[in-house]
Specification:
Blueprint (H helix, E strand, L loop, with lengths): L1 H22 L8 H13 L1 H15 L3 H24 L9 H27 L3 H30 L4 H27 L4 H25 L4 H10 L1
EC number: 3.4.-.-
Family: Belongs to the protease PrsW family.
InterPro entries: Peptidase_PrsW_arch/bac, PrsW
Length: 231
């Protein structure tokens, strides 16, 4: 029973956050089966990413800066970006800017959920430890997904040089913030909380702003207003 409770606690944050961001889609909700599929893709990439990271760690060593920005954040964010670009970016369901956020959050939380289950299983984690992970790494992955998806949405509905610029931002920006997050946790043993809490506050504030701006750019916004006026 205790094991079941711990596994449930490891899964719950990812499901709760995905539900939160799904409900933030104000104008044209995505098909739930599509969101779940992308969430499950996040499950599948954990093992290949771990293998790549292990090989890179053996090859390059564990220098904190290199590990944080290249081996950890670099590999994870690139794989998520690569799959989103090839599976979702040109999909017919990607029809408003917020969809980029939702699908990027879905794949990120799928990855974070399996990571959380593995942590709980191999470290015999307490419920308290899982609560901390819900507030930090799981929500961190979700917010990196918001950043990636926001710029994917901007790229999708831009033209020319702006498209290429936003595509670059969609990879570089989440990678940067993820790297900063990992560097803090990897190098600070005593005062990390004084840095990670402000960082998470900045990410949440910025992330919610991106959610609002993405929704405001929806082509369905005016249609919904017209329907409300008619009623």
């Amino acid at each position: 029973m205790l094991l079941f409770s711990i596994i449930a606690a490891a899964i719950a944050p990812g499901i709760a956050l995905l539900t939160f961001f799904y409900l933030k889609d104000r104008y044209d909700s995505e098909p739930l089966h599509m969101v779940i599929k992308v969430f499950l893709v996040g499950f599948l990439i954990v093992l290949p990413i771990m293998i790549i990271q292990r090989g890179m760690s053996l090859w390059f060593g564990d220098h904190p800066f290199l590990y944080s920005f290249v081996i950890s954040a670099g590999v994870e964010e690139f794989v998520k970006w690569f799959l989103l670009y090839h599976l979702i970016y040109n999909h017919t369901e990607f029809d408003e800017p917020y969809d980029g956020i939702l699908y990027a959050v879905a794949i990120s939380l799928g990855f974070a959920t399996i990571e959380n289950i593995m942590y709980a299983w191999f470290n015999h984690a307490s419920l308290g430890a899982l609560m901390i992970r819900a507030l930090l790494p799981v929500s961190g992955h979700a917010l990196f997904g918001v950043i990636m998806g926001y710029y994917l949405g901007r790229a999708k509905f831009s033209e020319g040089k702006l498209t290429r610029r936003f595509l670059l931002y969609s990879l570089v920006m989440p990678l940067f913030w993820h790297g900063v997050y990992d560097l803090i946790l990897g190098t600070m043993t005593h005062f990390w909380l004084w840095y990670i809490v402000p960082l998470m506050m900045v990410l949440w504030y910025g992330g919610m702003g991106k959610v609002t701006r993405a929704n405001n750019r929806s082509p369905f916004r005016l249609l919904k207003r017209e329907e409300e006026v008619k009623l």
